[in-house]
TrEMBL record:
Binding-site residues for Mg(2+) 1, renumbered to this chain: E229, E265, D293, D336
BP term (GO), one: D-xylose metabolic process
This protein's encoding gene: xylA
HAMAP family per UniProt: Xylose_isom_A
PANTHER family per the UniProt record, alphabetical: PTHR48408, XYLOSE ISOMERASE
Organism for this UniProt entry: Paracoccus haematequi
EC assignment: 5.3.1.5
Required co-factors: Mg(2+)
Family per similarity comment: Belongs to the xylose isomerase family.
UniProtKB keywords: Carbohydrate metabolism, Cytoplasm, Isomerase, Magnesium, Metal-binding, Xylose metabolism
Protein name: Xylose isomerase
Signal sequence extent: none
Length: 434
């Protein structure tokens, strides 16, 4: 045991507390017929919370934790103890991990697999003792220099094979631990210049790899959801999984739109030129919404800074779209966020999560009220009410032709006049809730 978090007691819901507590998140509060914990499905990201050492491109480790540098199995095992102590303090219902987060890579694929299974045994024992569940597992196919030109899209077939073995082993462990999803995180699945890139070949390789992952999921009886996380410009200029629409195009091309969904990150949505709520709404419209990574970017930096969320209005709009789509099923709210490199103390990590959970709870409650009171949806229905008329529906029905529609418009002497979209009024309405 590391004892790293020992001085900190498990957090309780206490709006008036002076010390560490949840001031808004009450896991048992009923929201739209479900407990808040079951609506939000919070998860802790192993990589940022227990793997990141507080460095940046200009300086090395700033955090002094007893399991660093975690390059031996003994240190990796002590980190498991610390992580589950942390989960207990937060009362977090889920966690997420990459294989590389939880064990040092071995000298061979077999040794890496054995080390992962050894750590999974420790996790399983702690989960049986009332620990959190696994929201999703994933494989790190980006850090090692072998992946500098991608994993599934790599020009070297041996790298493709190595990645396949790594994903198989990680999916096996995710299945064994009862994971509810498995994520394919394509950090380097893209290119920097067309001068050395066969774009069509790489897209086909990525689609074939994904198809084989889906086939293997069914072979082993994994009931969870396969997820892709859209990644714009990270770290290449042209990502094959740039945003939700791009991912849907890939899935449709390979007949996988009924098998694979998306895990959408707030920071990546912004870097792709969208809002978080846009990406969620589009995923719902396309039938591929799965889960979210909740964080925020620094508005003064054009990069993915992975900070904890602190804006209730932004979070409320995201959860509004999630609730409009029916809420989470196998997915949840993973905090893909890290404390700043000067936040050195154990309490900093605890309260960063606690504050973010409070923000999300407030956002969820605002979203639920907006949905229950129906004012936004009523305005939306009113805007499209004309499409309920039989003659309007007939224009979209099978057999309708451009000529028929044009002739009707001429015969009716149509001269449609613009109608206000009432954007500012609706924005003001949202502000009443947040």
């Amino acid at each position: 045991m590391t004892g790293y978090f020992d001085p900190i007691a498990p957090l309780a819901f206490d709006p008036d507390a002076d010390g560490p507590a949840f001031r808004h998140y009450d896991p048992d509060r009923m929201i739209l017929g479900k407990r808040a914990e079951d609506q939000l499905r919070f998860a802790v990201a192993w990589w940022h919370s227990f793997g990141w050492e507080g460095g940046d491109p200009f300086g090395g480790r700033t955090f002094d934790r007893p399991w660093f540098p975690a390059d031996t199995m003994d240190l990796a095992e002590s980190r498991v103890d610390a992580a589950f102590d942390f989960f207990r303090i937060l009362g977090a219902p889920f966690f997420c991990f990459h294989d590389h987060d939880v064990r040092p890579e071995g000298a061979s694929l077999g040794e890496s697999r054995d080390r992962l299974n050894r750590i999974a045994d420790l996790m399983a024992a702690k989960m049986e003792g009332g620990g959190p569940r696994l929201l999703w597992g994933t494989a790190n196919l980006f850090t090692n220099r072998r992946y500098m030109a991608g994993a599934a899209t790599n020009p070297d077939p041996d790298v493709f094979a190595y990645a396949a073995a790594t994903v198989r082993d990680c999916l096996d462990v995710t299945h064994r631990l009862g994971g509810e999803n498995y994520v394919l995180w394509g950090g380097r699945e893209g290119y920097e210049t067309l001068l050395n890139t066969d774009l069509g070949r790489e897209l086909d390789q990525m689609g074939r790899f994904l198809s084989m992952v889906v086939d293997y999921k069914h072979k082993i009886g994994f009931k969870g959801t396969i997820l892709i996380e859209p990644k714009p410009q990270e770290p290449t200029k042209h990502q094959y999984d740039f945003d939700v629409a791009t991912v849907y195009g890939l899935l449709s091309r390979h007949g996988l739109e009924g098998e694979v969904k998306v895990n959408i990150e707030q920071g990546h949505a912004i870097l792709a030129g969208h809002t978080f709520e846009h990406e969620i709404a589009l995923a719902n419209a396309l039938g591929i919404f799965g889960s979210i990574d909740m964080n925020r970017n620094d508005q003064q930096s054009g990069w993915d800074t992975d900070q904890f969320p602190n804006s209730v209005p932004e979070v409320a709009l995201a959860y509004y779209e999630i609730l409009r789509g029916g809420g989470f099923t196998t997915g949840g709210t993973n905090f893909d966020a890290k404390i700043r490199r000067q936040s050195l103390d154990p309490l900093d990590l605890v309260m960063a999560h606690a504050g973010a959970m409070d923000v999300c709870a407030r956002g969820l409650e605002a979203a639920a009220r907006m949905l229950e009171e129906d004012r936004l949806e009523a305005a939306r229905r009113d805007r499209y009410a004309g499409w309920q008329r039989p003659e309007a529906q007939a224009m979209l029905a099978p057999g309708a032709t451009l000529e028929d529609i044009a002739d009707r418009a001429v015969a009716a002497g149509l001269d449609p006049q613009p109608v206000s979209g009432r954007q500012e009024i609706l924005e003001n309405l949202v502000n009443r809730y947040v």
